[in-house]
């Protein structure tokens, strides 16, 4: 299992990685990007063919999570790889826009490993 975590905070990327591991998912590799542009570059490389999950923040500089989702969809990068958004933005317009752009799940900060498990494991089984 390989995951890509996108967040402008290195600390939050580690928190997300720890929550994924605590949820019982056995990741062999966790790639990281600090914004949507870096993530798109990773997906244009070989990372896309071997990814099982993408976890992205929404609020980031350079390219935010919603722009990342929309560009990923428009460029058909990593098709079929489930994307889960993790953010403080819990408002319905953000959720609807993220889902319209291809997000398969949504977790609001702060979150627990149990919440991550509930939202991510079903997506990995369906992928």
How would you describe this protein?
Helix 1 packs across helix 6 (about 115-125) and helix 2 (about 35-45) runs parallel beside helix 4 (about 65-75). The chain has helices at about 10-20, 35-45, 45-50, 65-75, 90-100, 115-125; strands at about 1-5, 30-35, 55, 85, 105-110. The chain is of the alpha/beta class. Helix 5 (about 90-100) links the parallel strand 4 and strand 5 (about 105-110). The chain has one domain (about 1-125): Response regulator (Rossmann fold, 3-Layer(aba) Sandwich), CATH 3.40.50.2300. The N and C termini lie close together (about 10 Å). The model has no long low-confidence stretch (mean pLDDT about 90).
Considering the chains and any ligands shown, give keywords for the structure:
127 residues; alpha/beta; Rossmann fold; 5-stranded parallel β-sheet; 6 helices
Secondary-structure-derived class:
alpha/beta
- Give the N-terminus to C-terminus distance in angstroms: 11 Å
Beta-strand residue fraction: 15-25%
What is the domain total for the residues? 1
Mean pLDDT: 89
Report the helical percentage: 40-55%
Low-confidence stretches: none
CATH class: Alpha Beta
Q: Judging by the overall fold, what is the CATH architecture? A: 3-Layer(aba) Sandwich
| Elements, N to C (H/E) | EHEHHEHEHEH
Shape: globular
**For the report, how would you describe the main beta sheet?**
5 strands, parallel
Question: What is the assembly state of the chains in this entry?
Answer: single chain
Count of helical stretches? 6
């Amino acid at each position: 299992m390989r995951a890509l975590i996108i967040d402008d905070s290195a600390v939050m990327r580690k928190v997300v990685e720890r929550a994924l591991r605590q949820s019982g998912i056995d990741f062999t590799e966790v790639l990281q990007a600090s914004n949507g542009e870096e993530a798109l570059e990773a997906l244009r490389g070989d990372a896309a063919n071997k990814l099982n999950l993408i976890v992205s923040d929404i609020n980031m500089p350079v390219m935010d999570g919603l722009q990342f989702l929309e560009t990923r969809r428009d460029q058909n990068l990593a098709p079929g790889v489930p994307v889960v958004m993790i953010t403080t933005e819990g408002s319905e317009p953000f959720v609807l826009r993220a889902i319209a752009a291809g997000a398969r799940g949504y977790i609001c900060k702060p979150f627990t490993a149990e919440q991550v498990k509930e939202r991510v494991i079903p997506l990995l089984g369906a992928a």
